[in-house]
Amino acid sequence: MIALRDEEVATLAPIAVPAIEAVAARVSAQQAWAQWESDVARYGGAVPVWEGRWYYSVEASRLYELVNDSPLDALEAACELHVLDWWDRYDDAVEPFFAGARKDNPVAALFHAVGPQRARALPGWAGDALLTSAEVSRSLPAVERALDLAGAEREQVLARIEDWLADGEDPAALLDGLLRVWQQTEAAGLGLFSSRIWH
């Protein structure tokens, strides 16, 4: 996740925004989201992650597939957009945030942890978003409600991130890193580019 000047956002928007919106609007994506909501309700707040020691549960696999449908990944594969080139264009006013997970998806861990209601408050689709400075300002209160957690609620979310990733990553770094970039980007009057790609 990086901060960009609005001029950079305007250059990228005709490629990225329609692709993100098209994936979010798919009937299959909406059905998958509804299934996730149903799974979460059935298990009282979060789906079981593991079936046995090495395999995701059926419900966790469905969530993984839901967030794995990245429009920016598809543009990258088609050589229509090279996300790494844009990562080099970030504005120095905000330190970028990068989260990595070996053979896993940090967005799946985050969505599992915060649940569908909070995840729906995050702009874009499954970790992919491009916003102008005005859109960042409008979105920040909802993002803060979704990510700026305290007390037992925060501990529960961090435990769920850790349970999903299960590979030594710091769960607080994922939660707090995203929030930091949002807040600093808004304070600097910049736009924001968030992307989830395999690399």
Write down the Rg. 16 Å
Strand pairing plus helix content: what structural class?
Answer: mainly alpha
For the sheet with most strands, the description reads: 3 strands, antiparallel
Q: What percent of residues are in strands? A: 5-15%
> Helical residue percent?
55-70%
The CA-CA distance between the termini, in Å, is: 15 Å
Low-confidence stretches: none
- What is the overall silhouette? globular
Mean pLDDT score, rounded? 90
Tally of helical runs: 9
By DSSP, the count of extended strands is 5
Strand arrangement, major sheet: 1-5-4
Q: Which sequence of SSEs, written as H and E, runs from N to C?
A: EHHEEHHHHEHHHE
Question: How would you describe this structure to a colleague?
Answer:
The structure is a single chain. This protein has helices spanning 6-25, 27-42, 58-67, 71-77, 83-87, 106-120, 133-147, 151-165, 171-188, and strands at 2-4, 50-51, 55-56, 129-131, 191-194. By secondary structure, the chain is mainly alpha-helical. α6 packs antiparallel against α8 (151-165). The mean pLDDT is 90.
How do the helices and strands line up, and which of them pair or pack?
Layout: E1 2-4, H1 6-25, H2 27-42, E2 50-51, E3 55-56, H3 58-67, H4 71-77, H5 83-87, H6 106-120, E4 129-131, H7 133-147, H8 151-165, H9 171-188, E5 191-194
Antiparallel strand pairs: 1-5, 2-3, 4-5
